[in-house]
Every structure is written in C-alpha cells, then in structure tokens.
Amino acid sequence: MKTTIRAEIIDSKSKDNTDAAATAGIAYAGIDCANYESPIDVKTNAMRLRRFQYVLRKLVLIGAGHLPARKEWELKLAIARHLFEDAEQATALLDRITELRVTGNQAQTAPDAVLALFMDEVIHCRSDTEYLLGIYEVVRPELLAAIQAHLHETQPLVDYPTVRILKFLCLEMEEQIALGKALIAHFVTGAQRSQAAEYLQNLRDTLERIGGFSGQLPARKVEARRFRSISPYTLPPKSARPDNFGPSLHYRQPGCLDEKLSDAENAFREMMKMRQEEMTAAEMVAAVMFETTEMPWTFYRTLARHTWDEARHAAFGQAALEKHGINWRATPHYTAEYEMFRGQSPAKAYAFLALGVETSAMARSGKQHEWQLCRDVFNDRLMTLFQDYDWADEVQHARFGKEWGTAFFDDDFESARAYGEEAWKELLRYRASQEPDRQKYHTAFYMEKFGKMPMMKATEAVLAADGE
Ligand SMILES: [Fe+2]
Ligand SMILES: [Fe+2]
Ligand SMILES: [Fe+2]
Hints:
By secondary structure, the protein is mostly helical. It has helices at residues 2-24, 42-66, 73-97, 104-108, 113-123, 128-153, 160-187, 190-195, 197-209, 263-276, 279-291, 297-323, 336-339, 346-360, 364-377, 381-405, 413-434, 438-441, 454-467; strands at residues 248-249, 333-334.
C-alpha cells in the first residue's frame, strides 16, 4: 500500500513537470506534439508528398515550355525565378520521399493519372493572361492550401524532416503567389480575365474531380476529361517580346550606342546590352529542358538553375542600363540563340551554349576580361559586381556543360566540346551574315577596341575560313 502511494506521488510530480515543460514551450525540442495521434502514417505521408512533388516538377517544365512563349518581360523573369525555386523544393521533397520507404523510381513517376491529366491541361494556356491566372490564382494557391493542410495534420515530431521542408516551401510559395498577384494587377484587364474564364473553369473543375492536390478532398465523382490537351503542347518558333520592345533580330544591333560618346562609353553600353539580351540564352536552355524527356531529375534541376541564371544576367543588364538612364526596351533585341536552334536537336543547342560559348568564356580573355574592363576601364561599381557574379555563374555553366552536355554524347567530353564549338561557329557565321553593315557596327564593335574576346576571335576565324 505504501509503495502505491509513493508511486502516485512520483507520477503526479512527473506529470506536473511534463505539463510545465509543455506550457513553457521547452518540451520535445520545442516541437508542439498536441496532435500526436495524427492519422498520417508513413504510407499516407509518402503518397501525399509524391503528389506535391509531382506538381512542383511539372511546374518546372510548364515554366520552361512557356518562357519563350510568354510576352511580358516581368512575367518572363518571374517564370525563370519560380521554375528554379520549384526545382529546388521538388528536390528536397524527392529526397524526403525516398526516406519514406519509396524507391527513387517510384518517386519520379506520376502518382496519379488524373493528376497528370490536370497538369497537361495547365500547360495548354494560350496567353500571358491565362498563364498568370492559371498558375497564380488556381495552381499555386490550391497547392499551398493542400500543403498547409498536410503540415497541420502530420505529426510534427515523427515527421519533422517533412515539416521543415514544407515550412520553407510555404514561405517561398507565398512570395510566388504575391508576385503573381502583383503581375495580374498590372497586366490583366477585366476583358482579358473574361476571355480566360473557360480555361480557368476547366482547371477548377478538373481539380475538384481529382480531389484536389492532396487527393483528399471529396472523392472523384466524375471522370476528368481532356479539354485542350488532346494534342501535345509545342514550343513557339519565335520568342515573344513585349509590344513596346524594338524589333527582334538575329544579330546584336547596338541600339543604345551614341556616336557622340567615347569609345569606352559605347563599349560599356554594348556590354550592358549584351547582358540584358541573355534572355535568349535563358529561353534556349528552357527549350532544351522542355524537349529532352526521360532524363534523371538532376538534369532538370541543373537546367532550371541554368535558365534562371541566364534570366538573372538579363536582369543585371536591365538594372545597369536603367541606372544609366538608357531606354533599352525600345532598342532592337537579339533573339537568335532560341530561334536559330528551333527545329534542331536539343543536344546541339546545349552543346553550343555550355560547351561552345560558356566553356570558351573561361579563357582569361573571356569573363575575367569583361569583369576587369568594368572595374578598371569603365569604372562602374554596379556593373563590376554584376560581371563578377556573371563570371562565377558562368564557371558553373561550363561545369553543367561538362556534366550534362556530354550526356548527349556518351559522356565523351572531347567530342561533345568539338561539336559545341562547331555549333557555336555555325551561329556566329549565321549572325555575321545577318549584320547589314558589318564593317561599321558588327557585334561588340566598341568592346573589341578594348581587347578581343573569345566570341570575336571565333567569329574572325569563321569568316576568314569562309573567305579562303
Ligand atoms: Fe549567359
Ligand atoms: Fe551571363
Ligand atoms: Fe551562362
């Protein structure tokens, strides 16, 4: 009897301690365990995460497929940033799923045929308006709601690795939705919204039929149908640009030059404009990603980063031009890197950029030289910083080329590099043939006065060989 009383005293003391610790928020490493009888076991959890992760991976490819097709500059930059973020979040979830007794192969396949059908419908938007409303008013808010519901339901102590990933994912997706809403407020008129109604209604109906992104909402009652996705989405032959941009050209016309300025000032303008025109490289890498199917996920993750870097460099150029009060929008815009490779193999396009241009830019006369010019000759601190990071990114791109550009060529670096050089020369030859007054204003006419870069050397070599 005595023993029992003593045990009860110890018990109530430890209960008091537990309650006090929980109240003070110091129990279980600060993790709230109130809902510890969560119904989300490992299997249910893995099934839901597979769906979220699948949607994110599809969003990466939808962004890639639409980057060249979408017109407004600010939307293009948002697409490039968000496809990179989606790829990073999908990677974290993919890693987590394989910790939940799911194989890598299972994790990378579609978890549900009707969810796949829904994503097929999303990519068939036909305008900036449909893209903006579909992605930022339907897909992302519904995905965020499903993820937040899961975050609320799963047991935070047993499932902490998932909780941590989803916390960051939600933060980033809230920012994505906020940017999307701001873009909609800026670009979408009431009339345009009405025109998009049928496309949006179909997305909402289909999502309802499949039980939402978690598959948990009231069960499917009606068979989902294909509305637009009866034929595959294809990339546009031309890369779209806003109405207030100058003409799209297949050579670089230095539209912001001024003969009254010094050679150094014009060379600086050429360099800023060249950065801003890296959007065509972003579109080309996005196209490679979109057209190359059935690769390991790391390929898409790498090219998503590559796409965003090229678009970011375009934003560097934009920011530098705007700092100097230059109206860059109305100038001609170079679009050949995407457009010339339409109808050619993705292997050639990627070899051209990553193994031709970017690998050659690693020479001292390449990216390093551009950075030194900004620092020592043009004396512009902002552009020096931009070139410094552009150089750092391009080192990564040359590495991407070695890793994935060679994947198209049996991992043979030498032959892949030679092929990339040839593809680059083909573009340079074509570009030179398009320039109306090559002697006076060829590509980088002023920059050449401050040292020859790999692109200029290669162009000269090609033209000299053609002249023989
Ligand atoms: Fe680039
Ligand atoms: Fe760059
Ligand atoms: Fe690059």
